[in-house]
Amino acid sequence: MEVFREIANPEMKTYFLAISLMISQLGFSQQECKCSQNFDFAYQKIKDNYAGWDDKITAKNQTEFDKLTQEIKTKAQGITDEKECYFHIKKWFDFFKDGHLFVTPITPYSIDDAPGVVAARAAKVTQLSFNEVSFTEYLKQNNDKLQSVEGIWESDDKAYKLGVVKDKNNPKLFVGFLLNDRNAAWKAGKAKFEMLQIAPQKYITTYYYADFSSEKNFTREVKNFLVIENIYKFNKLFPIPKEEVNNDDLLHKIADYRIEKLDAETALIVLPPFTLPNAPEFVQELVQKNEEILKTSANLIIDIRNNPGGDDAAFTPLFPYIGTAPIVRKGGVFRATDENIISIKHELEAIEDFPIYKERLAPKLQTVLQKMEANKGKFVTGPDKEFSVSNPSIMTKKVALLVNKNTASTAEQFIFEAKQSPKTIVFGENTKGLADYIEVRDWGLPCYGWRVAFSLAKSHRLPQKPIDNVGITPDVKITDAETDWVEFVRNHLKKLQ
User: Fold this and answer.
1) Burial of 103 by CB count in 10 Å (0-12 exposed, 13-18 middle, 19+ buried)?
2) d(C-alpha 95, C-alpha 80), whole Å
3) What is d(CA 229, CA 435) in angstroms, rounded to the nearest whole number?
4) Residue 348: alpha-carbon gap to chain centroid
5) Which helix (H) or strand (E) holds 269?
6) Which of 195, 300, 307, 313 could form a disulfide with 280 if both were Cys (CB 3.0 to 4.6 A apart)?
7) CA 416 from centre of chain
């Protein structure tokens, strides 16, 4: 049983996923599944079709790899539990050190920390004596002494109602805490986050998750909104805010993905993950609606931190503001095999009923397919694509790409393409390093409704300029000691004028 699903349009994904799961479940109902069935199937698909096989398995590591393969294969024969199987065969996949080579279960598996470990973390998290009634009274009694961030806040999804109060010992520290009991571990008064003020209306926040693990994020106070970036937005309920956000604030300051005018010369563009359904259309609309801001800004800061990649059409609407000459997208180097040919054919069939995707993808895929069919057993190079960037009315002089260790895959491709322009400067830290093996497709596995994904092609940069597991080094590094990365970039660009 071999089921292929092209990873592209969300509607197409839903259709093909439904077919895939139906067939997988039918197969499962007719037999007792063993882990070895999935491993054997995945092994064959990857060995015969993965573009990185000969790069990853070499004379130097062949003995080690063969030993690991035999160990995984032997033990897998006795495993029937899905979760145990997943973590067992994952050890084999990890050998390749390629984030584009993986197994996808229907529901992600995780390994939870032991109760004692969670309890130890919980004990270190601040516990205040307030509840909703007592904190409301505190706010009323101290109304004339309160900082603007102090009060009762509610998350935008209504999941949390929290109090925020200034720490007794540190006037720059504010604690966000539960106003009511949620469960035995999370009682009223337990800190959900702690915010250290670094500038007016700006904070570095330590946010605590359900298991009391934590994450640090930048936080902005915008009138009656508190935005903990990439985590939560909160709306102030009490005391009644003196000023509330307007529609312009919601669009240009509060929205996760936005274009914001920072000053007369600088605009900030926060792009969505390129995996967002209809990301190209979303970004195109965002650019069109904010054309005046973009055209009149000498400096653009494009924030692609934590962007995992996805659709490489998602960032092309920005090319006219970035390029000084046509930007060229180099074709990938495809492994021509019978099963990779099947994958490409199925993808062409899948996009037939989707005009937007057919127009965008079919020319490349048809060219690749013809070359593959004529050169089975070899590697063939896909076509280059050129993007025109002529727009004389644009004032952009410098383009800053803001990246971090979670900028990956197609987002790294964006960096390479944007760097073709002398305007572009990359700020931040080394990216993830997940762009050497590309054109990821997947196949349905015999058991559990899982799928195995791998790259059909490798980057034209190989073997001379690999980046996997190393990343792209920024032109200007920003250390963790710098609390406001956007402000750092803004000030740096001003010095270059």
Assistant:
1) buried
2) 23
3) 26
4) 27
5) strand 266-270
6) 313
7) 18
Q: Which two tokens stand for residue 65?
A: 């790899």
C-alpha dihedral, 112 to 115 to 117 to 119, nearest 10°: 130
Torsion angle of C-alpha atoms 299, 387, 409, 475, degrees rounded to 10: -40
Quick check: is 132 in a domain? yes
Q: How many CB atoms sit inside 10 A of residue 274's CB?
A: 24
Give the Cβ contact number of residue 124 at 10 Å: 9
Phi-psi region of 449 (alpha: psi -120 to 50; beta: other; left: phi over 0): left
Residues in the chain: 497
Domain of 181?
A: 118-247
pLDDT for res 7: 39
Q: What is the CB neighbour count within 10 angstroms for residue 141? A: 9
Nearest by Cα to 315 from 426, 416, 191: 416
| CB 135 within 8 Å of CB 121 | no
Token readout for 106 is 């229907």
Q: 448 lies in a domain?
A: no
- In whole angstroms, give the CA distance from residue 62 to residue 39: 19
Question: Given its phi and psi angles, is residue 454 left (phi above 0), alpha (psi -120 to 50 degrees) or beta?
Answer: beta
Helix axes 62-76, 35-49, angle to 10 degrees: 150
Beta strands 451-458 and 437-444 are: antiparallel
Q: How many domains does the chain have?
A: 1
Mean pLDDT value of segment 67-76: 98
**How much is the CA Rg of the chain, to the nearest whole Å?**
26
CA angle 431, 100, 74 (to 5 degrees): 130
Digit-coded pLDDT (tens) for 436-455: 999 999 999 999 999 999 99
Tell me the pLDDT tens digit for each residue of 26-50: 334 335 789 999 999 999 999 999 9
The residue behind tokens 């998602």 is: 314
CA torsion, ordered 291, 293, 296, 298, to nearest 10 deg: -120
In the chain the first and final C-alpha atoms are separated, in Å, by 61
Residue 251's alpha-carbon distances to 255, 300, 489, in angstroms, are 6, 18, 22
Longest Cα–Cα distance of the chain, Å, equals 81
* Half-sphere exposure (Cβ direction) of 231: Cα atoms closer than 13 Å: 21
Mean pLDDT of 165-172: 97
CATH number for the domain harbouring residue 225:
2.40.128
pLDDT digits (tens, 9 = 90+) for 394-438: 899 999 999 999 999 999 999 999 999 999 999 999 999 999 999
Cβ proximity of 440 and 433 under 8 Å: no
Do the domain assignments include residue 141?
yes
Place of tokens 């644009």: 394
Token representation of residue 111: 């390994």
115 prior amide bond cis, ω within 30: no
In the predicted model, is pLDDT for residue 345 greater than 50?
Answer: yes
331 found inside a domain: no
Collapsing DSSP to helix, strand or coil, 22 comes out as helix
